[in-house]
Structure formats: structure tokens, C-alpha cells
Amino acid sequence: MIAATQNALSATGITKRFGGLVALADVDLTVGNGEFVALIGPNGAGKSTLLNVLTGLSAPTAGRIALDGRDVTRLPTHRRIRAGLGRTFQHGRLFPRLSVVENIMTGAANRAGRGEAGLRAHALAQLRRMGLERLADQPISALSYGNRRMVELTRVLACEPRVLLLDEPAAGLNLGEVEDLMARLRAIRAEDRIAVVLIEHNMGMVMRLAERVVVLNFGRKIAEGTPAEVQADPAVLAAYLGEGAAHAGR
Amino acid sequence: MRSVLVLSALILAGFALSFAVSEYTLRLLNMAVIAAVAVIGLNFAFGYAGLISLGHSAFVGLGAYGLAILTTKADWSPWLAAIPAVAGTGLAAAALGYPLLRLKGHYLALATLGLNVSFSIVASNWIELTGGTNGIAQIPGLTLAGYKLDGEQTFLWFGLAVLALLGLAALAIHASRLGRAMMAVRDDETAAAMTGIDVTGVSVTAFVLSAIYAAIAGCLFAAHVHFVSPDDFNYAHSITFLSMLIVGGEGSVAGAIVGAALLTFLPEWLRVLGEGYLAFFGLMMLAILVFLPTGIAGLLRRWRRPALPPQDTAAGLDGAVSR
């Protein structure tokens, strides 16, 4: 077992019960510094619930969460974000009454000691890096769906996270936008050494980006390993295709 | 920048009117200015942070009673009395905000309404302190550098100066990180928390700011009318403040001023309707909520900027869109 301090994020023994329903059962998830982990599983496997527990939107029934070795299990969401956690939502959640650059500035405001001009400069630099600077003064209502999601990602990056949690970032994007998103994610990781946890149904994207894949099914971790290992795992095949397929595959 | 110009224009219009209208209209203008201060405050809670408050009048009352009690029972100067009256109201809002703001929407509206009703009951029954339903009379007026602000015209000048300062402060907050955080909280609490915004802290701050503006309005009211009674601060006034903000346009300082002025003068202009005014008022509010959900300020914005820029096409987006 690696010491907790060496991981950017470590969640141990996470259990979440909703009344009689066990949404997560004793799940462990560790993410090393700058590591790219994909979290996959069929619908209802508990992936989004795990992200909600990690970000403090919902309290775990049991378990412990550490960021950079520091216990954050009891911290409210905004304190975890300030401690280096970042997250995007399944459909991109922006603040429609603020312009694009103002949306980014809300994220940038986490870092103390930046004046108004500094905040704006930081936000514009982030937009430039994502190739979105021409959208800076647009209202949110004028953005395409794909751009909304990219602006949301930029806002999270403006918080300068150490660990980035992405909830189906490619859902609803066209092929060109998915390619663009993958290129951006690679560039961001290369520059910032941000650790990433990716929830994604687009298996092509998972297999090309992830260094390690964690598979959830019915709230339990059923497999973990490199993309190739996981793809060959009979338990994973059974979860996705049913028991018969797994036996046939053997 | 544009909003500073609009604010200056409104203040100058009030100043110009002060030389041109009757004593009676001057009195109404003073009432409008005092209401405008309170409504700019309500805009922090409702317009920016989305907290529906039907108890705003109670905070106006706390400020007014604070000044009335300290000046008449303890013989303080009204200037000095205004400081603890306003600060105390802010503290009260902070203490009430933490438990109250756990509620949302209709529940918060009901709880703040209850707060206002409680205020009226206490003000009517704590007779030794508040004078009960008789209220407190003979509140001293303001004196500035040896000059008495007791005429309607001179008080209006002073009121307009206070409104200008508080309006500018509100615009500065609007454009600050606190202003953005308040709007983010209203738009999407979860996403706001996910950008590191302390949702509870920002909500309570908005609530306290709104109470401070309300208390300043209350002090102006007490020093102008020289008399306070529980009826001046009942929940009906809270509903009026909310109506003023919605008519003028929530989320806008100029809208708050325009709404306050319009709803102060409208009952006078429509006096011919008699009891029918309430029916007219109800229908007008309904029409505004349906056809002008962003109020008068929103209507003006729409005229200025008739269409949104085209969707993500290169032509419309080469940085030509400026403010």
C-alpha cells in the first residue's frame, strides 16, 4: 500500500446508502500525482454518486477522503475546491447572468491576493489557452452546447485544481469537438501535471487517454487495471454484456 | 460605466425636480428616495443572490426604531444614533440569516414574512421601549454644519446625496467578486460551490447588506417624518418593496430607483380609482410578471441591444463585441 501522502486523491472504504439502497459499497479510489484514471461502469453503477461524495455534495455513510494526504471528508464543497479539487458536470453548468469571462473569474477568485484586473487577466489567459478568447465577452446564451462545456472546463481550470473530476465531458459533443477536447486534455496534463478522473461512456476516449481504468458495477469496484487488462477482464464483460457473453468470451 | 451614468442622470433629475415642484410633490419625492435606498438593499438579497425576502420592512423598522429610541430616550444626536441603529440591524440580519437562509424559495418567503409580523407584534406591545401603537414622536431632525435639514427641499437634497453614495457603492459591489459570487449563487448554487464559492457565506453577506441599506432607509425615514409607529413597517410595506424591485427590474440599481419612484407616485396619480387601485395594482403586477419579467430596466436593455450576437460564427466574434 502506497502512503496516502503520495496520492493526489485517495478515497478509502467509501460507502453510500440511500435508505435501503447501497449506491456505493466499500469503494477505494486512489489517484497519483498527474495520473489519468478513467472511471467506467454501466448506468447506475454509482460513478456520479462517487463524484458527488468526493466533492462533498453528498456525505458518505462511511469512508475517508484525502486530498494530497489531507483529510477532507468533513469539509464543505467550496473548501475542497480551494484545497485543489475541480469538477465539471454532465451537462455543463454555467452562470447565465454572467458573461463568459465573468464565469471564469468566479473560478479564478479562489486564489487570494488577486485584484480585479489580475483576476480578469488570469481568466483571459485561461480562455486563450483553450482557444476561446474570442468568446470572452459573450453572454452564455450565445454559446453553442460544445462551447458551453469547454467554458465550464475552463472555469474549473481557472481554479487551478490538482485533481480534476470530469463527468462525461464528451456527452453531446460531435466528433470534431471530442477530438478537440482530447487534445486539450492532453495539453493541460502535459503543462500542469493535473491528475484527472474521467467518467466517460465513450470507450475510444477512455482507452486512448486513461493510464488506469476503474470499473464500478452496482456500487462495487469489480475491476481495476490498464485499459487492456480491463477490456479482457471477464467480470467487466459480464457487467457490460451479461453473464452469457462473458462465458462465451472465455 | 453606463450604469454610473444612468444613476447620475436619475439623481440629477431628482435634483432638478426639487426646484420645480410643489411642497406636496417634494414630500412624495422624499418618500421615493427613502424607498429607493431600501429597494437597492433588497436588490442584494433578491436581485443578486435570489433570496426572496418578505421581511425587508422589519429591517427598515429596526433602523428607524433604533434611531428613534436613541434620540428620544437617550438624547443622542441622530447622526450618532444612526451608527448603532444601522450596525445593530446588520448584526441582527447576520444572526437571523444563518438559520433562515437554510430555507429556500417559498419557505424563505414565509419565514421572512413571519419575521416581519413578529417585528410588528413586538413594536406594538413593548410599550416602555417603542410606545406601542402610539409610536414614538418628536424624533429630532438632522442638522448638517449648523444648517437644519428640516424643509422638504433641503431634506431631498440630502436624501439624493445619500442615495447617490449608496447607489455607487451598490454598483461597485455589483462589479466586484462578491457581486459575481452572489449572482453565481442565484444562478446555480451547486456550480457556485464547485467554483469555490462559500454559498452560505455569500448568501448571509447579501442578506446583511440588504438589511444595512434597509436600516439606513429607516434612519432617513425617522429623521424626516420625526415619528415612527408599527404601521409604518408592517409586512404590506415589505410586499411593496418587493413590487418596486420587480417593476423596476431586479438585478439593477437604476431599476430599483425607478421602481421605487414609480410605485410611490402611482397611488397618487391613480387616486381617482379609489378602492379600485388595489385591483389595478394587482393586474399591473401580473402583467409585468408575464410580459416584462425583467422589469423596466430589462425593457430598456432590450431596446439598447435588440438582438443577441449570432451564434458561434467567426464573422460576429472577432472581438468587435464591446460593452
TrEMBL record, chain A:
SUPFAM superfamilies: P-loop containing nucleoside triphosphate hydrolases (SSF52540). The keyword Glycosyltransferase does not apply. Transmembrane segments: none annotated. GO terms for molecular function: ATP binding; ATP hydrolysis activity. SMART domains: AAA (SM00382). The keyword Transport applies. Keywords: ATP-binding, Nucleotide-binding, Transport. GO terms for cellular component: plasma membrane. PROSITE patterns: ABC_TRANSPORTER_2. It holds the Pfam family BCA_ABC_TP_C. Residues 9-243 form the ABC transporter domain. This is Sulfate/thiosulfate import ATP-binding protein CysA. It comes from Methylobacterium frigidaeris. The gene is cysA_2.
From TrEMBL, chain B:
InterPro entries: ABC_transp_permease (IPR001851), LivM-like (IPR043428). The chain crosses the membrane at residues 28-46, 76-100, 107-127, 155-173, 204-227, 239-265, 277-300. It is found in: Cell membrane. It is a multi-pass membrane protein. Keywords: Cell membrane, Membrane, Transmembrane, Transmembrane helix. One of its GO terms (cellular component) is plasma membrane. One of its GO terms (molecular function) is branched-chain amino acid transmembrane transporter activity. Coiled coil: none annotated. This is Branched-chain amino acid ABC transporter permease. It comes from Methylobacterium frigidaeris.
